[in-house]
């Protein structure tokens, strides 16, 4: 019941508070080191991907933020540094059309909006509406507008939706797991970035 939920929340809070910061930083450093040369995951072998997943799980176990979806630490612009998502990495495309510029994501917890920006060569982008489920740090994601080749706007189809579970969050790093089983590791690049007004 409600009392159990309160006890569970207090336990999670206390556990997070007692984790030594040094252990968190060491686990993050080991994860970041494992990503060197993997081209955001596009160049990762099965063995390397498994090792990254293991190290990500070690970081997730030390998550210092009890309620990530309510935390102001989510706000700002993040850069994707690793993912297992073949679609984001463009693995089905010819190499010349795969994103080699930065892939960034901006979040605004006040408006519950997200914006994904893909760098060179295509400069595609997408806007999404976020809906927290209120359980297990999961947020539903409904994409609403795509921008192709930095200019052409297309309404997203109704099926363009999914969910994310935020499994680690601090001032510099965010780790998420997606509904298709994909892993995402992002680092903060601009804490003061704010999403532009509706419409590009």
UniProtKB/TrEMBL annotation:
PANTHER family with a match to the protein in the record: PLASTID-LIPID-ASSOCIATED PROTEIN 4, CHLOROPLASTIC-RELATED (PTHR31906)
One annotated Gene Ontology cellular component of this protein: plastid
Keyword Electron transport carried by entry: no
Protein name: Plastid lipid-associated protein/fibrillin conserved domain-containing protein
Keywords tagged on the record: Plastid
Localization per Swiss-Prot or TrEMBL: Plastid
Lineage start: Eukaryota, Viridiplantae, Prasinodermophyta, Prasinodermophyceae, Prasinodermales
Pfam family for this entry, one: PAP_fibrillin
Domain Plastid lipid-associated protein/fibrillin conserved: 26-144, 157-186
Species of the source: Prasinoderma singulare
